[in-house]
UniProtKB/TrEMBL annotation:
SUPFAM superfamilies: FAD/NAD(P)-binding domain. Residues 2-316 form the FAD-binding domain. This is NAD(P)/FAD-dependent oxidoreductase. PANTHER family: CONDITIONED MEDIUM FACTOR RECEPTOR 1 (PTHR42685:SF22), GERANYLGERANYL DIPHOSPHATE REDUCTASE (PTHR42685). InterPro entries: FAD-bd, FAD/NAD-bd_sf, Geranylgeranyl_reductase. GO terms for molecular function: FAD binding. Pfam families: FAD_binding_3.
Length: 399
């Protein structure tokens, strides 16, 4: 019998499995995929996530892949230019954006090094439970068709936005909003060494420098345009870059993209119940929001650490485990709800005059610009950024 079974071995699942194993628990991690394998992702790890990678002792391996430190960001909208970097978290000011087949592999290797048993090509077909409805394990099918049953005190679902595990344990959706955007991206050679954001009414373009001197360039459109955009996705993508970020477009106009165009209109926004009797959800399985703010990886890391902290040493005590899972569910929502609503605001792709007024007040003041990027990174809350002093300065600049 295992202490913990983790279903899903990407950044949320591998981190969770690694941390439980380091806490002295016997852990099984399963994933239906064979690694290494890429996945749809904006790649970006904000400063709080970088600080956790350092705390876990794996940041040096991420840096060793060659992904550059992203310690300068630029945001352009209308006639406004905001340039700076988030304030540090535990001494770390740079963000990083490794390719997912590298990041996920590093975390899975770290989990195995911590003592996790990792089964690839293993699909969970059922969650086992006792007469009282408590999850007690999983039924799996291996790549050769064999079926096995494994038992554990805690089963964790980390199998992504379309989580089958969440369905199996009947985790209810507690908060949900309709998709706001659709997004397309591909990779280009060189282009920039900065994290750049460009916004115009109904459009959002971002650059994310990553491994091998390549840059992910993403374009966001309103969800209402998805059916039109998908009919000529590359044409719509290039036109969005050209019209929203003409200087950026000039750098790629003569290039051929390094990969096919990736895209999705499935930008769900929700919270599911985070935990129940003998089970918990981490990462996108339990909470997902529009990728426009690139918070998914960082939030997955935070949830992994939070779950292990809340369970603590109580996993083998049924009452303490239940208390720990209830605390995890409460804290997860408390920690992530503000970023959820701010992401929905960004994903509306509306250029409101009051926001332009605020940004004009911020522009040119380095401390305010850095605090603005710290808000985007989740280092400080929106209420910490919008101080009475900022409101007063904004009033003074009104025409």
């Amino acid at each position: 019998m295992y202490d913990v079974i983790v279903v899903g071995a990407r950044c949320a699942g591998a981190s969770t499995a690694m941390l439980f194993a380091r806490a002295g628990y016997r852990v099984l991690m399963v994933d239906r995929a064979e690694f290494p394998r890429d996945t749809l992702s904006t790649l970006y790890i904000h400063q709080p996530g970088v600080a956790l990678l350092r705390r876990w002792g794996v940041l040096d391996k991420v840096i060793a892949t060659g992904c550059p430190p992203l310690d300068r960001a630029v945001y352009r909208i209308a006639d406004i230019r905001i340039e700076g970097c988030s304030i540090p978290v535990d001494g770390h000011r740079a963000a990083y954006a490794p390719r997912r087949y590298l990041l996920d592999g590093i975390l899975a290797d770290a989990a195995v090094a911590a003592g996790v048993e990792f089964r690839q090509g293993c699909t969970v077909t059922d969650v086992l439970s006792d007469d009282e409805g408590q999850a007690t394990g999983v039924r799996c099918r291996t790549s050769d068709g064999a079926t096995t049953e494994e038992h554990a005190r805690l089963v964790v679902g980390a199998d992504g936005m379309r989580s089958r595990f969440a369905t199996m344990v009947d985790s209810r959706i507690t908060t949900e909003d309709p998709p706001a955007t659709c997004a397309y991206y591909t990779y280009w050679e060189g282009v920039t060494d900065r994290f750049e954001l460009y916004e115009a009414p109904g459009r959002w373009v971002g650059t994310v420098p990553t491994n091998d001197n390549t840059t992910l360039i993403a374009a966001y459109f309103p969800q209402s345009e998805f059916e039109r955009v998908r009919k000529d996705a590359m044409g719509a993508y290039l036109e969005a870059v050209r019209s929203t970020a003409p200087e950026l477009y000039a750098k790629i106009a003569s290039q051929t993209p390094l990969e096919r165009l990736h895209g999705t209109g499935d930008q769900r926004n929700y919270f599911r119940e985070a935990a129940g009797l003998g089970w918990a959800l981490v990462g996108d399985a339990g909470h997902h929001k529009d990728s426009i703010t690139a918070r998914g990886i960082t939030d997955a890391f935070r949830q992994a650490q939070l779950l292990v902290d809340c369970v603590g040493t109580g996993l083998r005590d049924p009452e303490k485990l239940l208390d720990g899972l209830e605390e995890y569910a409460y804290q997860r929502d408390e920690i992530l709800i503000d970023a959820y609503h701010s992401t929905l605001s960004v994903a509306a792709l509306e250029v409101a005059e009051h926001r332009l007024s605020m940004l004009r007040t911020v522009a040119g003041d380095q401390e305010l610009m850095d605090r603005y990027f710290a808000t985007l990174a989740g280092v400080i809350g929106v209420e910490e950024f919008f101080t009475p002093e900022l409101h007063a300065r904004q009033e003074l600049t009104r025409p």
